[in-house]
Amino acid sequence: MKGSNMEIARHWVGGGTDTESVLPWESLKAFFSERDVHRQDIEEIVSHPDRIYIGDEFCSKRLPDVKDLKQQLKAADQQGLPVTLLTPVLTDGGIKACGKLFETFHQWDHAAEVVVNDLGVLLYLKQTFPGFSLSMGRLFNKGFKDPRLDKKDIAPAAAATCVNDCSFQHANMRGLAKNLGIQRFEQDLFPHADPDPDALAMNGSGFDVSVYFPFGYVTTGRACMTAGMDGRPDAKFNFSAGCHAPCTTHRFKLSHPGNGPALLQNGNTIFYPYTTSMLSHLLKTAETHGLRLVWQGGLA
Q1: CATH number for the domain harbouring residue 278
Q2: Residues spanned by the domain of 89
Q3: Residue 64's closest CA among 74, 49, 54, 73?
């Protein structure tokens, strides 16, 4: 059941508005059984979100154009839902190219929420659209995120401290965020971190917290293997032909030696599914500590 303090956001992946209540369980079965994902509980809370996320954290090619953005904002208005815009790392040219997109979002709501994942975008938005409510995205949150490690191999002292550590727990990062006017931290569950509810909710930090589920991301990069697949056998990875957004229709389930979890590659980013215990802990903590949960099930 959805707790009174819990906020649920749903990411509209891609250019569509994803307004149907049916969740993509068929594709998620590659990573979870229906029993493991607590389907009934998640179906209930995600089908009635409090907020919509649009845009993308990892690739500028997956940002909506102005036409798509206007359609998404209209759909959100019809449902009476506030909107958060996700933005990826952008070059100077990328920021300039997104100027009209930011302007359109600003015209819709001068105080709308934007998630930033690099300092260039952050400083540009603060200068150009100072009314935006800025969140620091999960690409800022560095830490040990390789899910293939067997937890039995983690020594109880220094190594355990390493896998529990993340950027958002450090005073220097929190001080930087406060000085830059950041109001919220966006993060995912690290695969080996201790499930400390107070640490996850950052109690006493002065920041609100969003946590993404049912996947966390392992790594991302500017070079996209998926975009380089142009179908010609003599050119397996051709990066000169531009991007035709194959990630909107094709995802890859990755395998590796050992007994680690199955991984998902979507475009330029690799994700890991949360375990049953991670999902249970997250739902309980969100209810008791007032977290915002961001559903990204459409990635699969």
Answers
A1: 3.20.20.70
A2: 7-216+274-299
A3: 54
**Is the residue at 159 inside a domain?**
yes
Helix (H) / strand (E) element for 124: namely helix 119-128
Among 119, 118, 53, 122, which residue's Cα sits nearest to residue 89?
A: 118
Residues 67-96 pLDDT 10s? 999 999 999 999 999 999 999 999 999 999
Query: How many domains does one find in the chain?
Result: 1
Report percent pLDDT > 90 for the chain.
56
222-245 per-position pLDDT tens digit = 878 777 765 565 656 565 567 777
Q: What is the pLDDT of residue 53?
A: 97
Establish if 257 belongs to a structural domain. Answer: no
| Residue 65: inside a domain | yes
CA distance to 52, 60, 194, 227, per residue, from 86 (Å): 10, 10, 28, 21
Q: Is residue 223 part of a domain?
A: no
What is the three-class DSSP state of 42?
A: helix
Within 8 A by CB and 6+ apart from 152, the residues are none
CA distance 291 to 211: 7
Region 208-227 average pLDDT:
90
> Coil, strand or helix: which one is 173?
helix
Q: Which amino acid is at 224?
A: C
Burial class (CB in 10 A: 0-12, 13-18, 19+), 117: buried
